[in-house]
From TrEMBL:
<dbReference type="Pfam" id="PF14373">
    <property type="entry name" value="Imm_superinfect"/>
</dbReference>
<keyword id="KW-0812">Transmembrane</keyword>
<protein>
    <submittedName>
        <fullName>Short C-terminal domain-containing protein</fullName>
    </submittedName>
</protein>
<dbReference type="InterPro" id="IPR016410">
    <property type="entry name" value="Phage_imm"/>
</dbReference>
<keyword id="KW-1133">Transmembrane helix</keyword>
<dbReference type="InterPro" id="IPR018649">
    <property type="entry name" value="SHOCT"/>
</dbReference>
<feature type="transmembrane region" description="Helical">
    <location>
        <begin position="6"/>
        <end position="29"/>
    </location>
</feature>
<feature type="domain" description="SHOCT">
    <location>
        <begin position="111"/>
        <end position="136"/>
    </location>
</feature>
<dbReference type="Pfam" id="PF09851">
    <property type="entry name" value="SHOCT"/>
</dbReference>
<keyword id="KW-0472">Membrane</keyword>
<feature type="transmembrane region" description="Helical">
    <location>
        <begin position="36"/>
        <end position="58"/>
    </location>
</feature>
Amino acid sequence: MLEYLAGLSAIVIIISLFSYFLPTVIAMLRGKSNTFAILLLNLFLGWTFIGWIVALVWSVTSDNKPQTIVVNNNSSIEPKNELKTLTSVGIKSEQIDNTNLNSHQDKIQNLKKLKQLLDDGILTQEEFIQQKNQILE
C-alpha cells in the first residue's frame, strides 16, 4: 500500500510540475525567441495565478518578425536619382524627383504607387498629400 501511495504521489508531482511550467513548455515548442524570459517569469511568478496567466499569454503570442517591403519601379525611363527611403522604422516615404516625371503616364504610375503605399499603411495621409503635390507640380 505504501508503494502505491508513493507512485501516486510521484504522478501527482509530475502532473503538477508540468501544469506549472506549461507556459514554458509551450514557448519551447513554438520556438519563441524569448523562451528564457518566459521561463524566468514562470519560475518566479508562476505561483501567483496572474504571473502564470501572463506567462501563458506571452508564450502563445506570435513573435514580431521584420517585414521586407519591395518597391518595384517598372518605369521605362531610368531615374537619375535613386529613391530615398527611411529605413529606421521601415519605409515611411519616397522622395520623387520632379525631373523624372516627364510624361503624363509617369505621373499616373507614381500616383498609383503612392495610393498603394497609403492603402498599405506605409505612408501617412500627410506624407501622401506631400508626395502627391510633388508629383502634380
